[in-house]
Amino acid sequence: MTRVLAEASADRRVADAGRLIGFILAVLTVFGPISMDLYLPVLPALTDDLGTTASGAQLTMTACLLGLAFGQVVAGPLSDRHGRRLLLIIGVSAFIVTSVLCALSTSIVALVLLRLIQGLAGAVGLVIANAGGRDVYEGVRLTRHYSRIVVLSGLAAIVAPVLGGQLAELFDWRGFFVVLAAVGAVVLVLVLVGYRETLPPTHRVRGGFAATAAHLGVLVRDRLFVVATLVSSLTAAAYFAYLAGAAFVLQEIYALTPGAFSLVFGLNAAGFAVFGFIAGRLSESWSERRVFALGVVVITAGAIGLLLVALAALPLAATVLAFLAIAAGAAIVSPPSTSLALRQYSEFAGTASSILGVARFAAGALAAPLVGLGGSLTMLPLAIVAVISCLLAVAIFPVLPRR
Fold first, then answer.
1. Which domain holds residue 216?
2. Is 138 exposed, middle or buried (0-12, 13-18, 19+ CB in 10 A)?
């Protein structure tokens, strides 16, 4: 009897540890949205303080996106080879340090460079959130994990601009990076206390660069992986264009205060979280391909709606509705596209995740600076970027295999 009770107690401890790891993996996804969304309400103020232009301020966002993209190329294969935990500790620690240095920046050039490094560090968390999930989940549970990631990133996107709008009443943009450092410190404590290694030595990749190159060859020849990555990256371009342009559209064109902007942006981010949750649940009764298709349709409708708003100078409500559709569509696309892309690659999930991540963030990094080309008083470039990205996604989607 004593032995049975001891075994039951051990099983509960393992289950609790698994739940804690699942929670930590989900929390790691905050690095992307909070790094970009927290200071959105003060982008115009940052522009004035550092004596730059709207495109120059948006370049700080582009630099972070590039770091988040290309950092995954390095972090993914390294985590496959050396395990997840140590690399995660190094990445989160670097994120904390660079956030503090961002707060001390005195020029736009220095801030752009530091934002690039900050993105490189934050990329470690994004890779391991996906690859670690692939380590511990299968099938429907894997899709649920990715839907949780989308929901939490949506919640982070809600909290970040709302918090940013309130913080803007208390101090300048530099304080926002101090908050990012504090968030990083909390995550570091969670990792140190609760994250056990999810990739045992027996499952790690051997062979260095040659093995990584071989894995890349496998991925680029897989039509399912390539098409899922391309379509989700194109929809990501539309979504990141919206993120980059929303502050200028709502504050410069519609004259909203930072606080009012944070509430409107928070409404859209709430839609992102809700529809990400719905996408995960729909995947249990629908095929993932159908859920993926639904997301592409919704985000394309939002992009076309935004173009109509820009051409006809429609009121704020129409703009908010178009933004909401773009956010909802991006949230619906993410869980099924990630699950489809990574499903067959448990043996090198870090590498597969890094390629998927770099494609998404690189697309966003290319789109973000384009939305400011017409200045801060027009949303037409934002709408054109979103429409072109979505129509390309619609054109490529039918190539997605049905298996």
1. 18-197+204-399
2. exposed
Q: 51 φ, ψ to 5°?
A: 65, 45
Residues with Cβ within 8 Å of residue 178, at least 6 apart in sequence: 99, 100, 103
Torsion angle of C-alpha atoms 273, 278, 279, 283, degrees rounded to 10: 150
Give me the chain's average pLDDT, please. 80
Place of tokens 């990329």: 123
Residue matched to tokens 């996604």? 393
Q: How far apart are CA 248 and CA 279, in angstroms?
A: 30
Cα 171 from Cα 177, distance rounded (Å): 11
Q: How far is 70 from 368, CA to CA, in rounded Å? A: 16
What is the distance of C-alpha 298 from the center of its chain?
Answer: 19
Domains of the chain: total:
1
Cβ pair 121, 94 in contact under 8 A: yes
Q: What is the pLDDT of residues 96-131, one digit of tens each?
A: 999 999 888 888 888 899 999 998 898 888 888 877
Tokens standing for residue 133: 């999930």
Decide if 87 is inside a domain: yes
With bands split at pLDDT 50, 70 and 90, how would you rate the model's confidence at 4? very low
**104 phi and psi angles, rounded to 5 deg:** -95, 0
Question: What are the backbone dihedrals phi and psi of residue 52, each rounded to the nearest 5 degrees, phi first?
Answer: -120, -170
